[in-house]
Amino acid sequence: MSLDLTEIRREITRIDRQLLKLLAERHCLALDVVRSKELTQKPLRDTEREQQLLQALICHAEEEGYALEPQYITQIFQKIIEDSVLTQQVYLQKKLNQQREQSIHIAFLGKLGSYSNLAARSYATRYREQLVELSCASFEQVFDKVKSGEADYGVLPLENTTSGSINEVYDLLQHTDLSLIGELAYPIKHCVLSATPAEVSQIRTLYSHPQVIQQCSRFIQGLSDVHIEYCESSSHAMQKVSAMGRPDVAALGNEEGGKLYGLQVLKTDIANQPNNITRFIILARNALSVSAQIHSKTLLLMRTSQQAGALVDALSIFKKHGINMTKLESRPIYGTPWEEMFYLEIEANINHPDIRKMLEELKGYSTYLKILGCYPSEIVKPVALAAE
C-alpha cells in the first residue's frame, strides 16, 4: 500500500509544531533557572550537570528503542543548552546594568546585507532591542560614530576561522577610548551571486571585500580568466553587481544579503573551510558591569620592555594565578620601529578581587597596560560526553 505524501507531510508539520511548543516551554524554564541562581549566586553554567543530562538522554533513547544516534541527540541538545546559557546571560546583564528595551543605534561596516549588518541584527535580537542600522564605509568610521554618540554600539569583525585576525581592527583598538562590551560568533556562508541566471564558468569578474576573497581563495583558484575587484564590503559588491545586471560579473557574499539586492545564488559553500565563523566584537562609549555568575573575558593591551624574556615573565603571571589565556596577538607600534604591542584575551572578570590583584602584579612586568574591556563570553563551548 502506497503512502499518501500529503498526509505524511501534514503529520510532520503537526509534530514540528509540537516541538516548537515544547522548545518554547523549555526556553521559559531557563529564565526560571536563572532567577533561582540569582538568589543563590551559583554560576550559570554547570558543565557536569550538562554532561550528565546528555548521557541520560542518550541512555533513555536506547531504553525506549528510539532510532536516534547519540551524536544526533548530542548536537540537538548542545544547541538547546547554548540557547539557555545565552538567555540567562542576557537576563543578568540587562538587570545588572539596568537596561530597558529601547531603540539602539548600531554602526557596522558596509550596507544592508553585509555580514557585519547581519551580526548587528543578531546581537540586537539576542538582547531584544529595536535596531536602528547605521552603515559605514570603513572600520574607522564605525569607531567614529560610536565615539561621537551617533551610534550606541559598533559591531566589528575581529577574527575569522579561515583568514585569521583582522589586523586593521586590532590597530584601531590600540588608539581608542571606547570599551569592548560584548562578542558574537557568526557563521559565514559565502555564495556566488549574480543578477541574472548564469553559469559559474561565464563569470569574468568577481566583486567582494578582501577578507571574503581570502576566505574563498581555493574556489577562486579553480576558476579560469577571472578578474578580482575589491570592494569596501560584500554588500557594496552585491549592490554593484545588481546595478550591472550582467551574466559575466558576480559578487561573493551571503544569500540573505543577496536577496536584498535581487541576486541569484549560483553556487554555495565556497569558503576554504566548511566551518567558517567570524567573531565580532561590540564596542560602546562606556564599559558595562559583568555579572560574577557569567563566564566572562577581558581583553588587555600590553607592552613589555625589550629585555630578553620580558614577555615570558609577564605571561607567567597568568599561569601563576590559574588564568586561561585564549588569545595572544602582536601588532607593531607606529612610530616605534621593532617594538610590538600585545593583545591578550583572558577568561576572567576584572571585578573579581583576585583578578584585580593579578592585574596589579602584571603592571610590574609591563611598561604599558590597558584594559580594553570586560564582557560576557557569548561563545558557549559545548560539553563533551565522558569517555566510557
TrEMBL record:
Residues of the ACT domain: 299-376
Any one GO cellular component localisation term in the record: cytoplasm
UniProt keyword Cytoplasm present: yes
InterPro entries in alphabetical order: ACT-like_dom_sf, ACT_dom, Chor_mutase/pphenate_deHydtase, Chorismate_II_sf, CM_dom_sf, CM_II_prokaryot, CM_P_1, Preph_deHydtase
Residues noted as binding substrate in the record, renumbered to the chain: 9, 26, 37, 46, 50, 84, 88
PANTHER family registered for this protein in UniProt: PREPHENATE DEHYDRATASE P PROTEIN, PREPHENATE DEHYDRATASE-RELATED
Localization per Swiss-Prot or TrEMBL: Cytoplasm
UniProt cross-references to SMART domains, sorted A to Z: CM_2 (SM00830)
NCBIfam families assigned: CM_P_1
A Pfam family reported for this protein in Swiss-Prot or TrEMBL: CM_2
Protein name: Bifunctional chorismate mutase/prephenate dehydratase
Protein purpose: Catalyzes the Claisen rearrangement of chorismate to prephenate and the decarboxylation/dehydration of prephenate to phenylpyruvate.
Pathway noted in the entry: Metabolic intermediate biosynthesis; prephenate biosynthesis; prephenate from chorismate: step 1/1; Amino-acid biosynthesis; L-phenylalanine biosynthesis; phenylpyruvate from prephenate: step 1/1
Chief subcellular location: cytoplasm
Domain of life per record: Bacteria
Top-level taxonomy: Bacteria, Pseudomonadati, Pseudomonadota, Gammaproteobacteria, Pasteurellales
Essential for prephenate dehydratase activity (site feature) positions: 278
EC number: 4.2.1.51, 5.4.99.5
Keywords (A to Z) from UniProt: Amino-acid biosynthesis, Aromatic amino acid biosynthesis, Cytoplasm, Isomerase, Lyase, Multifunctional enzyme, Phenylalanine biosynthesis
Keyword Lyase attached: yes
Gene Ontology terms for molecular function: chorismate mutase activity; prephenate dehydratase activity
